[in-house]
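worker-03 picked up job from queue 'complexes'. Input manifest follows; two sequence lines, order preserved.
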Amino acid sequence: MSADPTQVLAFETDCHIFADCGFPAPGLHSFLFKPIFGNADSNLYFNKPMLLALLGSIIIVGFFWAAFRKPKVVPGKLQMVAEAGYDFVRRGVVYEIIGKKEGEKYVPLIVSLFFFVWMMNLWSIVPVAQFPVTSIIAYPIGLALIVYVLWVSLTFKRHGFVGAFKNFTGYDKSLGAVLPMSMTIELFSNLLVRPFTHAVRLFANMFAGHTLLLLFTIASWYLLNGIGIAYAGVSFVMVIVMTAFELFIQALQAYVFVLLTCSYIQGALAEQH
Amino acid sequence: MSPLLTIAAAEGENPLVPPIPELVIGLLAFVIVFGLLAKKLLPNINKVLEERREAIEGGIEKADAAKTEAESVLEQYKAQLAEARHEAARLRQEATEQGTAIIQEMRAEGQRQREEIVAAGHAQIEADRKSAASALRQDVGKLATELAGKLVGESLEDHARQSRTIDRFLDELEDGASKAEATR
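worker-03 finished. Artifact:
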């Protein structure tokens, strides 16, 4: 992290339109943070996204701890809410895609993944935090890596070396002459592209969402001068609309992430196709 | 250089290259969540969900058992009721029969008593008749003696007169007897 983080909140500047001041557009610098402590040049530092990641973990664990520590057969309100979330992932995602018999083993992983990703996304619209942790590529990559390792090892375990190779390359004799090409593409697509897209899909969505929110928020402030005030109102309405939209996207992306995870696991467990 | 490139150059960062410390913290954060959920909290709730499922199934079973019992009890009550009705009908029948028998008996008794009374009446009449006949016989004897005396007294004028007298006497006698019969 050699960059000089120029992270400033939009409202910390006195920059307005018609005041000989350029628009402080959000950019990559918006995703860089001054370490809270440590040195950004070394690899020993602690910054806001890290804090949010750990805080998010604590919130998830705290929530489920409160709900499931001493669960009752006749549930209380909190337990009922937590059960609904748990049941949604278990039945709605894992059982749907992997199946009840094979999938039961992976329920804890998928449930953890879903709530973890969702929480990290949610930070985006939590006041003061207001930063989606998953818009830093390291976090999605970490999760995608876990899934990738699990998926590849499961494939080898289930099908043996040759079987796994066939699985990765989509080996199908009926393809005839196209087979070598198809196998090359499939191998590339499965082993290299898949984990990358898995992580980037989540990262890019949150990155773009955060950038949009920043754009409209900064614009609302920037336009607050002279005739610009009228436009600032429009921009501010957009902030609210985009916040609501982000709320939806955050849950959707968490859902998509675990859905893909399940479909990879299912692919590894499936018989030769 | 355009401003954007300047910024990018200044930052020197590719957003797709993960910074190692953040990767480590991200994995750590996830492992915390996964560990606690997988080892402690989800098994907890799974156990309870299982218990709940069993409780619901147990409840259904209980309800089934109660229903079966209720049905058997109802059956029993119905049987008892039918039996009671049957018994009542039987008792009624018996009472009717007994009543009939009693009436029959009374009737027979009445008949018997009537016959007794009638027989006693007959016997009485017979006795009366016998005593009357014997009294009559005495009277007839006396009258005959009286008649004989008269006949002797008239000195037997002629046979015809004599026989007329006798006839008349007998007629009188007969008249008296028939009158007595009629009055009786």
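worker-03 released lock.
The beta strands of chain A are 37-38, 45-46.
Residues 10-269 of chain A form one domain.
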